[in-house]
Each structure stands twice: as structure tokens, then as C-alpha cells.
Amino acid sequence: MTEGKIQAAAIEMVIAYITVPDLECARKIAHSAVRVRLAACANIVPAMISVYEWNGEIEEGSETILLLKTRKDIFAQLQAHVLAIHPYDTPCILEMPLGRINDGYASWLRSQVG
């Protein structure tokens, strides 16, 4: 495999990093995004502690991380889909570019999304 093939796959695919209140919400969004082929797959990290400022106060709370793998060109569609079903008023939905990715996995990812 050439370096160019690795880079081309990496540029095309991104990860959506999303924080949600709990495992149930993460599963709901993950199943929905995969079902409509806006994400190839999801990884759910069940527990983390978030510290942030909200309305002038420092808050701390437990959240769940949802990672959705998708194509860069449909990230905006995925983001709109998540916003429509996410329970937060101001959810964290970040597009994270991928670095290198093995060719077989990249092919599978591309085949799974819209």
C-alpha cells in the first residue's frame, strides 16, 4: 500500500465527537445515525467527568462520549441529524479529522455511509 492511498482515505473520513448525558442517549443517537447511514459505526465511552462554565458558574457532571465515524462530505448532515434528537440545548458535536487509516478499514467505512 502506498502512502498516498493512506492519506486519501484519511482526508475523506472524519469522527464526530459528541457528548451526551448518558448511555441510553448515546445508544439512541448511535443507532439512529447508523440506521440512516450517516455514520458507519459508533463507539460509546460510557463515563467521563466534564468540567465547564455555564451561566457564570463552574459545573461538573458525568457524561458519555459518543464517537461516530463518517465521511467529511456528509458531516453537516450528520450534525443536523444529531441536533434534531440530542437532548441538550447546546450539545458538543465536533468534527475530528482522521490521521492515517488502514486501507481495508477505510474501504469498509466508505461502504457503510450514505
From TrEMBL:
Family annotation (Pfam families): CutA1
Top-level taxonomic group: Bacteria
Gene3D superfamilies xref list: 3.30.70.120
InterPro entries: Ion_tolerance_CutA, N-reg_PII-like_a/b, N-reg_PII/ATP_PRibTrfase_C
Family to which this protein belongs: Belongs to the CutA family.
PANTHER family tied to this protein: DIVALENT CATION TOLERANCE CUTA-RELATED, FI09726P
Protein name: Cation tolerance protein CutA
Native source species: Thalassospira marina
